[in-house]
Amino acid sequence: MSYSEPPPPPPQYGAPQPPMGGGPQNHPRGTLILILGILSIPCCGLFTGIPAIILGRSTLAEIDANPAAYGNRGMVNAGYICGIIGTVLSVIGIIANILLRM
Description:
Number of domains: 1
InterPro entries: DUF4190
Region (Disordered): 1-26
Strand content: under 5%
Protein name: DUF4190 domain-containing protein
Pfam families: DUF4190
Largest sheet: none
Organism: Nocardioides caricicola
Oligomer: single chain
Number of helices: 3
Order of helices and strands: HHH
Shape: elongated
Helix content: 55-70%
Radius of gyration: 24 Å
Mean pLDDT: 87
């Protein structure tokens, strides 16, 4: 090693950075809607299913208005559908409970 050459660059650590201006981003409410929708099926359908339906409907409208900006339409749609299923099952359970007590 001579004093006239510059030292080598330090090694690179970590994952490589994605290119600037990448693909569509996920909608910020997508994960919340999916969690609420999934929880509405086994747990408390009316308390988590109705918010999943309301938030899912408005988020799907936002994604439809700007489809190039968001890439998680499937996640939002799955949470929305699970919210509907959980709410319907809760209503059926409430009706069956009322009828069995008569």
